[in-house]
Amino acid sequence: MDSYRWNWQVFWNTVDYGGEQYYQWLVSGLLLTIATSLLAWCLALFLGILLGVCTTTPLKWVCWIGDIYVEVFRNIPLIVQMFLWFFVLPEILPPSWGNWLKTGLPFPEFYTAVFSLAFFTAARIAEQVKAGIMSIPLGQKSAGLAMGFTLLQVYRYILLPCVLRIMIPPLTSEFINIFKNSSVALTIGLLELMATGQQVNEYTFQGMEVFSVVTLLYVGIALVVNAIMAGIEERVKIPGYLEGR
Amino acid sequence: MGISIENVSKRFGLFQAIDEVSLEIKTGSLVALLGPSGSGKSTLLRMIAGLETPDTGRISLVGEDATHRSVQERNIGFVFQHYALFKHLTVRRNIAFALEIRKVPTVQIKQRVQELLELIQLEGLGDRYPSQLSGGQRQRVALARALAFQPQVLLLDEPFGALDAKVRKELRLWLRHLHDTVNVTTVFVTHDQEEAMEVASELVVMNKGRIEQSGSPADIYENPNTPFVMGFIGPVNVLPAHTDELITHHSKAETPHSAKEPAHLFLRPHDILIYLEPGEDRIPATIERVIHLGWEVQVELSLTSGQTLIANLTRDSLEELQPKSGQGVFISPRRIKLFSGVAA
Asked: Can you tell me the distance from the alpha carbon of B241 to that of B266, in angstroms, rounded to the nearest whole number?
């Protein structure tokens, strides 16, 4: 390590061909990480809430759908899931669909990363929604029904508003996780932050600087997410309810 | 007829919660379902609400068969023991919520909420959240919420169960007055016989999924039909029918429903008179203990046969008797009931 020569100027060096500067690679990686994660997050939140609600309905078969989904997507490692979606799915689909996935779909590694991240995270969110709903006294649901609400209205207006408030802290973790997990997508060729970092390293051999910056960027994202979620928590706070926890 | 229940049964697994129950509740009445835990009173109330469905039998609300109608279609107001207020909404919105869902015009909602806030005497607290209210205030909000869309029937499940004794007493009176004002057919569940007698105009005493007896509080207290009712409504002394000293009193004992094998004698503590001198029909007894409860005095007595009894003394007779433990006295039962079977 004694011979390592620190050079923080490396990011402003111009790439040998193409005329770009290395920092621009990192910026594009960062933007792709953010885009992938945000899109996946929206899908995961929607799907996770839907599935979490499913697991608590009085309809047996609807519960099963939720439970089976959670077990499948929670128990397979994310990297395996990404490989399955990216490499295996096109082979087992009818040839015309498979070919479309391989050649017709623009930017396949991006969409695959978004969907596998979303499906994976949805299972975790579903479990939290389920736990949240079960933590709410049964009387709330009965009270809603007795007041003339339909089951759908009970979920929409009574249970979910409380559950989502309770869930803000664990959701913050999931939101941060999805950014970190998006780095797995480098294995299917998505040029996100981690992948561009690796690329810069391979071109410049200034790994210490490059991965320091990559690390700081991930930490920075996490801190921003944390601040946003804390802001939301503050805004939707109900006086006297869940305070002081 | 407000509520009509015909031959309703309900089973949870092996447990027969409700066993062939029939009951008529008049429009505008205030009825208490009274019984120990596990007697089926809450299940019956939840079936009237539609929160449970009966296995067999029929339930009609205001003359219409409602057995297979959902909770939403029954137009009932339900008040839960633990209030079940919506914690994420203010008092005002809690009350307004059922009206908002039914798309009632905003002006009307505002007016109705204001009326109800006045009714429950919480005008100033409309913008508070439930967690900022006391238990008694929360339960009043729960009542206002249940009344918001003018239900045909108001159902309350142990409404005062979670409150402390003083607040409970205040709310009982208040519910009674409220019923006089809004006059909606009201059924409430309680295991507290004093509460039932104080609030309701009619009692339905339940035990083991069946109705033991129904009627006015006074009638049920004075003329219990079964040993269970006698034991559950008010304090009672139970003695074996062959207690020697009381054999002579058998002739004047009341035997409701012509008990075939009278097994036990039932005496209310306030129906035992205590004298210092012997006399006709008076039985010798010894005072074992004197218990001062403030508003009354209880005396624990033992008969020569070894049986023990509790008697109540008024303040007047207390002055006259000056009871002390170990003192020999003479007692005379004013009223005795003979039942085959045992009390609650």
From this structure: 9
| Tokens 């339930």 belong to residue | B59
* Residue numbers in B near A142 (CB within 8 A): 51, 78, 80, 84
* B310-336: pLDDT as tens digits: 998 887 777 888 888 888 888 888 888
Domains, chain A, ranges and CATH? 22-236 (1.10.3720.10)
pLDDT at B344 over 60: no
Which residues are bridge partners to B332 per DSSP?
A: B273
Tens digits of per-residue pLDDT, A64-100? 999 999 999 999 999 999 999 999 998 898 888 888 8
Pairwise CA distance, residues B267 & B259, whole Å: 16
Of B71, B88, B101, the CB nearest to A146: B71
With a CB cutoff of 8 Å and minimum separation 6, the contacts of B43 are B10, B17, B18, B52
The answer to whether residues B162 and B135 touch, using CB atoms and an 8 Å cutoff, is: yes
* Overall pTM > 0.95: no
The enclosing H or E element of B16 equals: strand B15-25
Contact B192, B36 (CB under 8 A): no
Interchain contact, A239 vs B102, CB within 8 Å: no
CB contact under 8 A, B88 and A153: no
Complex-level ipTM: 0.75
A132: DSSP letter: H
